[in-house]
Design a protein that fits this description.
heterodimer; A: alpha+beta; six-stranded antiparallel sheet; two-stranded antiparallel ribbon; B: seven-stranded mixed β-barrel
Chain lengths: 378, 156
């Protein structure tokens, strides 16, 4: 727990600077299928109000640095997206509650001290490079150790031509689209890490596709019933003619810096893997094709089922996904089953108001107003 | 046939050189475009550089519109949407000829998935006038920034 108010203010400002830049770059969150803004607001208020007590249980059972380091193991969902969310969701909730008189200035520092007291050592241990976020490190997320990446590189198949490259990208996109649907348009289910140095000057992007199986969420039980796996990882190796960056929302960018203009011409190998017992095991191409075929069918079923849900059910489902960003930390600490993950529980007083907000304010990168209010303004 | 393989499928960056300017043939299901009279009706930021594609315009406002398109297929359709999330178009996105989104940026979820599918997408699109009627032949040109949507203005 962080008790130094100046240290807390520095962390609040630090997160605000990065969150503002990332949000300004992406902007819109709307979806005619899923009420994204309402569920984010509900989950963020719940996170601010409930996560501190839950985090006390988590940190009482395991060292934050140990929890963070567990994210370097294939299959762990202690990842960059959830670490970003661990800090930022409660800070957003606080911004919502503050003008409504929903924050006690005395209590506020204690809440943030608990939350950021888990986040900071966990983020450092997760990255293992002395930095806490991709923005500090030139937009690099290297969560997997070199020996893990060696296993990945050894399991890649050469890409034969641009058509083969396009097919592999489309298959990966089919998984990503379904991961977004299963996880209610959040990055809980789809994120890239890298670039990792590969053999012979190549650069690797590792894309973890998570929580698409029948047991991922209550609403995936039927649609995903025929999927052979619930988590899968794909990896792409590029030659040195591109520059790759990756942020803490798991978004990678591939920019051509030399050679053919088409980035596909720089894709030299790709492969699919399953996380098994802390390792990546290659998924044979035929099995991967079967998975993609099953995902394309499941997507239609799940879309129809989500479209048939009433609006509040969709809000509650999205809020559950967001609120559950803390859950892998609890699992790593062995206290998952001791905590109550139901949502909404602590936002019912504001629920009608939060559910009525459809639009998020436009965020400008150059706005001088603090993105998250500091402690000492209260 | 317009093929996703003709499009650049990786993340947008203004510094990325434009792709070759060759215009692919229109999909077979799309009527031949008028010989002349194409006019820019909207501008926006391409999700990724991509050669122009032609198709028929279809505004998708809610899940029912997407479900209806699931039944008929999305080949040759340039879809107009207001949502930058990845979920709204999820089951049909891969089939579309293109996407024009009035919100979002190249970092938005629908842009991320579109470029991986090789489906040209125009983000943060601003229309100069009325949105085209459904069925209007259109051309989506994401070969440079700003990207443009072209159509034939209605007679009169």
């Amino acid at each position: 727990m962080i008790t130094d108010r100046a240290a807390l203010d520095r962390l609040i400002a630090y997160h605000g600077r990065i969150a503002r830049a990332m949000t300004a770059e992406r902007t819109a969150l709307t979806s005619a299928l899923i009420p994204v803004t309402p569920y984010i607001l509900v989950a963020c208020v719940e996170a601010y109000r409930r996560w501190p007590e839950m985090i006390r249980v988590i940190t009482g059972a395991a060292d934050p640095a140990v929890i963070g380091a567990s994210g370097r193991r294939p299959g762990s969902q202690v990842d960059a997206v959830r670490l970003w969310s661990l800090a930022n969701l409660p800070l957003v909730g606080r911004q919502v509650l503050r003008p409504l008189g929903g924050c006690d200035p005395q209590d506020d520092a204690a809440r943030l001290g608990v939350i950021l007291g888990l986040w900071e050592p966990a983020a450092r241990a997760f990255r293992g490079d002395g930095h806490r976020q991709a923005a500090d490190a030139g937009l690099v997320v290297r969560r997997y150790d070199p020996e893990v990446i060696e296993t990945v590189a050894a399991g890649l198949d050469p890409v034969t031509d641009p058509g083969d490259a396009a097919r592999r990208q489309r298959d990966a996109a089919a998984l990503a689209a379904y991961a977004f649907l299963c996880n209610f348009d959040t990055r809980a289910g789809y994120q890239d890490s890298g670039p990792y140095p590969g053999p012979a000057g190549t650069q690797l992007i590792v894309r973890d596709v998570l929580r698409i199986g029948p047991d991922a969420w209550p609403w995936t039980a039927r649609a995903s019933a025929d999927l052979p796996v619930g988590d899968v990882t794909v990896a792409f190796a590029y030659d040195d003619g591109v520059r790759i960056t990756c942020n803490d929302w798991g978004t990678s960018r591939v920019q051509v810096v030399a050679g053919p203009d088409d980035p596909r011409a720089h894709l030299c190998a790709a492969g699919a893997f399953l996380p098994r017992d802390g390792r990546f095991v290659p998924l044979p191409p035929a099995d991967f094709d079967d998975l993609v075929t099953a995902v394309r069918a499941a997507q239609r079923t799940l879309y129809r089922e989500i479209a048939a849900m009433d609006r509040n059910a969709r809000i509650d489902a999205g809020a559950l996904v967001y609120f559950s960003f803390l859950r892998p930390f609890a699992a790593a600490a062995g206290v998952d089953e001791r905590l109550d993950w139901r949502v909404p529980l602590a936002s019912t007083d504001l629920y009608p108001l939060l559910c009525a907000i459809e639009e998020t304010p436009e965020i400008r990168a150059d706005d001088p107003t603090p993105y998250y209010a500091p402690l000492d303004r209260w | 046939m317009a093929s996703p393989s003709t499009a650049t499928i990786f993340p947008y960056d203004a510094a990325v050189p434009d792709p070759p300017a060759a215009v692919p043939d229109p999909p077979a299901a799309v009527p031949d475009p008028p010989a002349a009279g194409w006019a820019t009706v909207a501008e926006g930021v391409p999700a990724a550089p991509a050669a122009p594609v032609r198709g028929t315009w279809r505004s998708l406002r809610g899940p029912d519109d997407v479900l209806a398109l699931l039944d008929t297929g999305g080949a040759g359709v340039v879809a107009g949407v207001n949502d930058a999330g990845a979920t709204f178009l999820a089951p049909i996105l891969e089939e579309l000829a293109g996407v024009v989104c009035t919100a979002g940026t190249p970092q938005s979820h629908v842009a991320i998935v579109s470029r991986d599918f090789g489906v040209p997408a125009l983000m943060g699109a601003v229309f100069r006038g009325p949105v085209p009627h459904d069925g209007t032949p259109v051309e989506l040109d994401c070969s440079s920034t700003p990207g443009v949507l072209r159509a034939v203005p209605p007679a009169g």
